[in-house]
Amino acid sequence: MTVIERLWEKYELPVQDALHYADGRSYDLALDPAAPSGFSVLSPFALDEGLLDDPSRVSSVDGLAAVDLGERGLLWGGESSYGSEGFIARLTPDRALIWAMFFAASNPFDRMRLSGGIAAFRSTAGFAIAVDVDDPRNPALPEN
Q1: What's the chain look like in SS3?
Q2: Whole-number mean pLDDT of the chain?
Q3: CB–CB of 123/132 below 8 Å?
Q4: Domain boundaries, the chain
């Protein structure tokens, strides 16, 4: 079991703008309103090394919006322990993690819409994120 899967069992994510896959891959992210998808994927990093330096840098998450994908799982978005944080995630039908994105300054994601394979999320602060539900690293254009 990977570090991120162990955290997700407790509905926790690292407090870092990042994309995490259940298989252990992690990438730094940046909110980027100028990017078509609302964020930029940056460099890969080793999550376990960062948590060794400071294992307390995790936050509990709680969902505010969900879209059922049927046999393909669930999209879930919401808030974290602090008011400024937000997350979005894709889960299996039994709520195991496929991937999750965390943003420390987005505010909670409380609205989402699915169109084909693209999910559009909006935070309470007005940040708009669009992701390919199968792989958030793929470019996705949000709907208006």
Answers
A1: CCHHHHHHHCCEEECCCEEEECCCCEEEEEECCCCCCCEEEEEEECHHHHHHHCCCCEEEEEEEEEEECHHHCEEEEEEECCCCCEEEEEECCCCCEEEEEEECCCCCEEEEEEECCEEEEEECCCCEEEEECCCCCCCCCCCC
A2: 93
A3: no
A4: 3-132
Output the pTM of the full model: 0.93
Name the residue among 98, 137, 142 with its Cα closest to residue 123.
Answer: 142
Show the CA angle centred on residue 41, arms to residues 103 and 95, nearest 5°: 55
pLDDT in tens, 4-63: 999 999 999 999 999 999 999 999 999 999 999 999 999 999 998 877 777 788 999 999
